[in-house]
Structure formats: structure tokens, C-alpha cells
Write a structure and sequence with these properties.
With about 325 residues, the chain is an alpha/beta fold. The protein has 2 domains: about 200 residues, Rossmann fold (3-Layer(aba) Sandwich); about 80 residues, DNA Methylase, Chain A, domain 2. The protein is about 30% helix and about 15% strand. β4, α4 and β5 form a beta-alpha-beta unit. α1 packs across α11 and α7 runs antiparallel to α8. The longest helix is centred in the middle third of the chain and has 12 residues.
Length: about 325
């Protein structure tokens, strides 16, 4: 079987990378996103793909049918379903394009396969109920998941909601279950250490500035032997709390002793900052974050993409490995 794929909310092409990594037969026929910066990065890495800078609500059922696609891969905006986004759910205008897609799905009888990714929290939303009801109405078999990359042997935590759905005459070898699956059946083994993704000779521009070192007591710090890291968000390197892990070349023992000394001073004071500065704590580079998110080694950003833009785009992207494994399940027949 050779699939022709429509990649919606295509971003920087994480879904495209996952399709390529899956080894399945097919091609991304059309990609669509309204973010011009993301589109520049996408085009840089996938110059031969037909990329449309369009509002998804401008895509008519007739146009989508003429494109001759049979598969949709998509990661709709997640902000309406997050605490930081105030969980406005269907009342958030950023859901409009996805609700539009749900509304026209019954007219897209050419679509046989769907993979959708979103943030944890989507599973208890009104929009999720609307989506699942429409899948049932259109005769799709489906399965929902809440998966973290760490469960598939990846160094990074990024818990996300996923739904895979299909409607074909062929039997689906995957045995679906009612409710949400939180663990894939395969054993993926233990992740490599952080050292496996670390770049050498990193410039000082990635060192954490003093103004952020004042809050070094709340950092999640990784070192070379670490086999885990926290989710990198779009605010990485701009804010501290909850935006992702940082790195030090220092050993765990040195880290412990340094913090013991630093904590004898008032947190945030000059003496506290001077002490933790010796650890040379730094942010992960965009290339390292790409590795944590399992993008292929040849993937890169255009030279004109700013550092802040890189982090924002990565924070909105998907983990390639998780998507790859779900694609294999979706097409298992």
C-alpha cells in the first residue's frame, strides 16, 4: 500500500520526519501551516513537498478530495487544552480550525487513516468528545493514547495525547481497547545517557545568565550520565520554571557540594549566584533538543532562524519516535 498524506498544522515537519522514519510506503503530498517562520524551516528541510501557507479553514472538502490524499497527520493547537491556556476548550478561537475539520470529515470519504497529537488535557475536553463522536459517525476504528517518549526508550519526558483512527476493509492487527492506553506493548529498553546527544565546544551564549541563575534552586539539571530530561517548552531559555531541563558538565557529586554551599546563602543573592555560576549551567542547544525529540541527524534550522525562534518552534513540535511507533500500529494489517 502506498499512502498519500495530508500533513495539517505541519509546523517544522515532525510528522513528516516520523513518516520517513517509519519505513512505510507513501509520501507527504501536501503540508499546510499558517506560521511563516515554521514554514521556512519546513521548506528548508523538505524542499520538494507542496507546502501551503494557508488557514486550514480555507480548505474546502472539494479541494481536499481533489488532492487525492488518503491519510491525515495533524497536531492541532494545544493551548485551548492547557492550564497556561486557561483551558478554554471549545470557547478558544484557536480550536476553530480543528472544529472545522471535524465538521467536514463526513464529506472526506477519501480519508482512510488519521493520526492526531495534542497536549495532555485534550482527553477530557469537549472538542475531544466532538472528534471521537465524528470518528464513530464516519465508521472509523480508533484508539486513544497518553504516551511519554520515555516509555519508548527516549531521554525526554513529553506526555501527550494521541489518537489513531482507520476505516478500511482490511483487518486491523492491532487489538484496540476501550479507554486510553498509556503503554505500548513493545519493550524499548533503557535510553542512552544524555552524553549521547551532547555537542562539543559549545559557545558561552548558551550559559544561563545571572538573572536566571538567581532561581537556580528550581532548575531541573541533567549531567552526562543522566538518562532523562524534562519536556522542553516554547518558553525555553526565556523563562525558568517548568520550561525544560538544563545541563552541566559537572559531576553529580560536584553538583551536590556546590548546591550545599550555595544554599548557605540567601537564594538569589549575589553570593548564591557566584557559587552556582561555577557549575557553568547551560541550556541545551537547538541541535541537542532536536536529538531529544528524535529528529534525524541531518535535520537542521536555516541560518536566519533566531535562537528564540528555534526554541519556540521546538516547543510546539512533536516527538518523532512516538509518532513513528504509532504510525506502525496504525498501518499494521
Amino acid at each position: 500500500m502506498y499512502c498519500k498524506i495530508l500533513e495539517l498544522y505541519s509546523g517544522i515537519g515532525g510528522m513528516h520526519c516520523a513518516w520517513n522514519e517509519s519505513g512505510l510506503q507513501g509520501e507527504i503530498t501536501v503540508a499546510v501551516d499558517i506560521n511563516t517562520v515554521a514554514n521556512e524551516v519546513y521548506k528548508h528541510n523538505f524542499p520538494d513537498t507542496n507546502l501551503l501557507n494557508r488557514n486550514i479553514q480555507s480548505l474546502t472538502p472539494e479541494e481536499l478530495k481533489k488532492s487525492n490524499v488518503d491519510t491525515i497527520l495533524m497536531s492541532p493547537p494545544c493551548q485551548p487544552f492547557t492550564r497556561n491556556g486557561k483551558f478554554l476548550d471549545e470557547n478558544d478561537p484557536r480550536t476553530n480550525s480543528f472544529v472545522y475539520l471535524i465538521g467536514i470529515l463526513d464529506k472526506l470519504d477519501n480519508i482512510k487513516y488519521i493520526l492526531m497529537e495534542n497536549v495532555k488535557g485534550f482527553e477530557c475536553s469537549a472538542v475531544r468528545n466532538l472528534f471521537i463522536d465524528k470518528l464513530k459517525e464516519c465508521g472509523f476504528e480508533y484508539q486513544e493514547f497518553l504516551l511519554c517518549p520515555s516509555t519508548v526508550g527516549v531521554l525526554n519526558s513529553r506526555l501527550r495525547y494521541y489518537c489513531i483512527a482507520r476505516r478500511t476493509e482490511k483487518i486491523w492487527n492491532f487489538r484496540r481497547k476501550d479507554g486510553i492506553i498509556e503503554q505500548l506493548p513493545k519493550d524499548y529498553g533503557t535510553p542512552d545517557s544524555i552524553e549521547s546527544i551532547i555537542e562539543l565546544n559549545i559557545t558561552d551564549k548558551f550559559l544561563i545568565p545571572d538573572k536566571l541563575l538567581k532561581r537556580a534552586n528550581i532548575f531541573d539539571i541533567c549531567y552526562k550520565d543522566s538518562r532523562r530530561s524534562c519536556c522542553i517548552t516554547k518558553a525555553y531559555a526565556h523563562y525558568v520554571e517548568g520550561t525544560g531541563s538544563v545541563f552541566t558538565d559537572a559531576s553529580p557529586e560536584t553538583l551536590k557540594l556546590t548546591y550545599e554551599k550555595a544554599n548557605t546563602f540567601e537564594v538569589g543573592s549575589d553570593k548564591f549566584v557566584n557559587c552556582v555560576r561555577d557549575l557553568k549551567l547551560r541550556f541545551f542547544t537547538p541541535k541537542e533538543v532536536l536529538s531529544l525529540m528524535c529528529f534525524p541527524k541531518h535535520y537542521n534550522f536555516p541560518e536566519n532562524t533566531s535562537l528564540r525562534q528555534c526554541y519556540r518552534l521546538l516547543g510546539n513540535s512533536v516527538n518523532v519516535k512516538v509518532i513513528t511507533e504509532l504510525l506502525k500500529i496504525l498501518f499494521d494489517e
